[in-house]
Amino acid sequence: MSRWEELTGGTSGRDFDARFAALARGGKDVHGEARLCAAFVPVGARVLDAGCGTGRVMIRLAELGYDCVGVDLDASMLAVARQQAPELPWYQADLAGFEPDLLGMAAGFDLAVAAGNVFPLLAAGTEATVVRRLAAALRPGGLMVAGFGLDEAHLPVPPSITLTEYDGYCTAAGLTLVDRFATWDADPYDGGGYAVSVHRR
Q1: Which residue segment(s) compose the domain that 100 sits in?
Q2: Which residues on adjacent β-strands are paired with residue 47?
Q3: SS3 74
Q4: Which residue, 17, 73, 88, 185, is the most exposed by fewest CB within 10 angstroms?
């Protein structure tokens, strides 16, 4: 069982979506992840939203003209995503067992994004496997962009993965670090409790 399932019980979709809808109504920018991803690949690029949740990031990228696919384990989150954008491809799958061919899609994504603390909320011990699976889904030269908390102030669960560990998993999967930010607005990383890492296959 993933830490996300332990935390939410798999019934979090509507509550999660309502929280971001309230932020948007209050004038908060909720599209930083999509904006950063769009800065790295041209319009029309194939994007894999790994741990897509209710689809906030992917729906925005699709609106901007990207060819997107969303994958998540949580059925309640995917139900909201499918309701909001039924025309987009949403797949229920465990990222630790992610194989594009088995889901009826081809590999060769230009970018894979894992936003929303995907890696700290995976099942313990599966982090390296998920990195390897996502790296394999990228075309040569493709990018993996992952943002997650590193301390209790930035996570709903105890910290479970360090940047050193994450970089090690990426290196083992054939990925090279090309940039790291402190936020999805591309502020320089200064060693704080949240990091957005960009690796290239």
Answers
A1: 3-200
A2: 68, 111
A3: coil
A4: 185
Residue 124's CATH number? 3.40.50.150
CA dihedral 90, 94, 99, 104 (to 10 degrees): -30
pTM above 0.85, yes or no: yes
Cα–Cα distances (Å) from 118 to 3, 42, 104, 114, 158, in that order, read 10, 24, 23, 6, 14
Q: Are 197 and 166 in contact (CB under 8 A)?
A: yes
For 122-151, how does the pLDDT look when each residue is reduced to its tens digit (9 = 90+)?
999 999 999 999 999 999 999 999 999 999
Q: Which of 17, 118, 110, 116 is nearest to 66 (CA)?
A: 110
Q: Identify any residues that bridge with 180 across adjacent strands, giving them in sequence order.
A: 197
Q: How many domains does the chain have?
A: 1
